[in-house]
Design a protein that fits this description.
Blueprint lengths: L9 H21 L6 H9 L3 H18 L3
Length: 69
């Protein structure tokens, strides 16, 4: 099944982008190319509490999937 991301509203597009960024940061943690401060730095740039929660949940999801402590 395929999805056309261009058809999503701005809020949903932003969630997809935050999820991608969370995945990348956790990958960098796993590869020892970044530290936990990278997550804190990203959280400081997010204004909406809802988006912060989404990003944190995505980080936790990818930590589980990638086996990062």
């Amino acid at each position: 099944m395929s999805y056309n991301l261009a058809l999503l509203d701005a809020k949903e597009k932003n969630k997809v982008e935050l999820d991608k960024q969370a995945s990348y940061i956790v990958w960098k943690l796993k590869q020892a190319k970044a530290g936990p401060e990278e997550i804190a730095r990203k959280l400081k740039t997010i204004r909406s509490e809802e988006e912060k929660e989404w990003f944190e949940r995505s980080v936790e999801k990818y930590k589980r999937v990638m086996g990062v402590a």
